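[agent] plan:
  1. take the single chain provided in the ticket
  2. run structure prediction with default settings
  3. attach structure tokens to the ticket
  4. add a short note for the reviewer (M.T.)
[agent] executing step 1
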Amino acid sequence: MNKAVIYFGATGNEAADQMVMQVLEEYCAVNGYEVVAVISENARPEGMTFPMKFAFVGMAEVEDVDVVVTLMSDMVGDCEETIMDNIIMLGEHGITVETANDDMAGYYQKMEQAGKKEDNGIVSLADFMAVFFKRLRADR
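[agent] step 2 finished; step 3 output follows
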């Protein structure tokens, strides 16, 4: 069973936050994820904070976390570049990011396409992430 961390940006509206939690818990149950932690921070337009990303990495080292589950990609970052940076950084530690409304698929598809264009010799996720990360940094 994969281990999941539920992450969401709390709005302060107790009813709305409770509904989001319920959706995320049901998503984890349907996908067979064992929820090892529920983490929230105040909702921000920029998405998850820098310390939060490192908390996930630390949890992956200790708890063997496989996936961060959130409601939508806006909770991961505020633009495509930030979202890609966040999923790459987490991916380097074996963590995938999933959203209950399934809007992360397009980002992972872009990563896969970029990796294929860059190097046809990719044989593992770690190789892929290294190639993609190098390409992304070179574009800046």
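[agent] step 4 note for reviewer: Helices lie at 14-30, 50-63, 80-91, 105-118, 125-139.
[agent] ticket updated
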